[in-house]
Amino acid sequence: MIKILMVEDTPTDAELALRELKRGGIQHQSRRVETEKELRYELIDFKPDVVLSDFSMPHFDGLSALKVVRQEMPDTPFIFVSGRIGEELAIESLKLGASDYVIKTNLSRLPSAVARAMEHVEQRDARRRIESELLESNLMFRTFMENLPGAAFIKDKDGRYLYGNHGLDKAFGVEKGFSIGKLDTELIPFQVAHKLREMETRVLDANTALQEIEVMSMPTGVTYWLSTKFPLLGENNNSRHIGGIAIEVTERMKVEQDLLLRTRAIEACVNPIVIVDTAAPGMPLIYVNGAFETITGYTSEEAIGRNCRFLQGTDTDQPELGKLRAAIREQRPASVLLRNYHKDGSMFLNELYIAPVSETVDGSGAGHFVGVLYDVTQIKRYQEDLEHQANYDTLTGLANRNLLNERTQQALIQARRHDQFLSLVFIDLDNFKLVNDSMGHGAGDELIANVGSRLQTCIRDGDTVARIGGDEFVLLLTNQNPGDSNLTVMQRIQRELVKPMLIRGQELVVTCSMGIARFPDDGEDSESLLANADAAMYRAKSNGRNNFQFYTKEMNATTGERLSLESDLWHAMANEELFLVYQPQIDFRDGSVIGMEALIRWQHPKRGLISPMEFIPMAECNGLIIPIGIWVLETACKHNLQLQKEGLPPIRVAVNLSARQIGERDFVQSVKDVIDATGLDPSCLELEVTESMVMHNVEEVVVILNSLNEMGIQISLDDFGTGFSSLAYLKRFPIDRLKIDQSFIFNCDSDAGDAIIAQTIIALAHGLKIKVIAEGIEKPEHFAFLKENGCDEGQGYFISRPLAFKDLRELLIARQKPH
Asked: Are 31 and 58 contacting, i.e. CB atoms less than 8 angstroms apart?
């Protein structure tokens, strides 16, 4: 039913029109108005579906009514129903918005006109709804596309952009809408555009959607895009366009690559790494890396799903386990040391580090723990070894100086607390250097180990034997009473050490010198007690060795003198307190002087002349022997060259070497430098080495002596017959002379044994084409014996005392001709 508003001044005409509508099947409600005011009111109150109006009325006209209706209800159909209307007015009314006009004399056409007008309204409303829906759909589409997290686009089959959202413009770095109508080659580098088009071609060929990671290598950098492209199907399911969405995943790719790198790093880690789900019942392992499998022997399949405690086996009574459980319960990191077991049952020490893994942004709610296992078995053993090495002597297994000091400190605390006494006994082996030099360091080490074992048998449980270096030992005797004299212990040590030892096939008898210092009489701390025991030991050495001495305060003075003398020796060279004397060497055939031995002396400004036997051992210990040795060599060469420049016949000068000198790496070069600097003919220089020195390291010494010999320098073997050298080695050395030790010369005229030894050495040397020189010729009988037995050369007080350089020159001038 429609609502009809009649603008009509004649009620009968209105009734006729309405009756015709009813006859035409149009059901309606109606109202009639005659004035503009009534019209405006009914338009608001009645809201008619259609307005029928007369054209000419006394108080109102149709065109005015049309204007009012178009103002108030512009979409409502307006039909003129009038007696007469000209063609021009009809056209004008249609232009003004009238839907139709019907002549009152032809009312039969009114129902169809109203029906057409209402149909037109329905079509118009339907079209408007469709347009509105399309507009809304388009708006929704654009809103959707613009708010996608990336680039969205539509292309035609040729690849031209028909649509692109803001994300597309941003991806290309262009203004809004710039890409529309353009190909990729117009927007991005050709190589990149080619790859994009290649994917689109596959989409069109397959007529299906594809998703790939596309790489955009732009001048501004490389970006990665997760691209989904799909055909937009038209009629007959033909692909006419291509749609696509591309989301930049550069950061995600970086995160994934970082995650992959971390995963691979964890897998490559040499330490086992595990992850435990602490929120699950039993807190099972959910991940183990390859190192876990390698070190424990369990595969990941065997480990995952089990609690870590299976690595402890039955060894569950471990204090650190409580610390581990507390850390998990309190959600905090921890480090523990556990005994774990490999699959084969062998134990390893596991230094385990655990930390909670947060599963929320704020760092709370850790449901997992990560653990890193460190197999520290070898490290702990190494630390134990280091600790043992730090406190125990490697050779003997005895306490070392460090542990001795610690135990002495503890013993002193106990002694003070309980009014007890303790003693330190300083022990030094007698003549140990002779064993080292003659039999080698291996034999010396074996001897030291034997002595250490014997000393341990001489003390009580609770006392300590320590080796503090070389051939020095210290005993710590604790819990002593005032009446304990230590005499019994000293005698027991002497009896034990004097028993022969079989070292490398030789029986050796060892003696020692011992010094005793006692707390509290001889010192209040470990340092003073050890120093005073050392001073007492030196007194025992001075008293002929193989004895023991108890410390007395007077010993400190002797020790002080020794330290003072050593200090003065450092300044002796700079102060020109050292000088050389020369002992002439003669040829037994004619008595001519054919050489001289350079001997060092020290003129101390306060103590006077000091024997080399006193200061040379000091120099060897503190290293001064190296610069002193170079000075002796330079001075002797300069003096010899000076004699030749004064017209005296060339003779050789013999210079003694020490073991410390010959052991220097650049020793040969230093000798060459002296020869070059002084200009002395190398054949006029003879270097003396002792028998024990060359036997210390045969192979190395052979190389050194050969190098010196190749330079033209002569080599003399001093003290021959006093050591344990092998004759097999003797022929390997480039020896020019053997010097018979003076100990065999002293009684050669009265002792048959010494005479035979001297004769044997002479015969041996001559058999090896080596000359023989004897030292210590003190009387005519010595001279006669040696000359009779074919000794080549000699020196000694019978021939000449050591002379100052000035006196030597005068002697050589006086003896230019043989007597």
From this structure: no
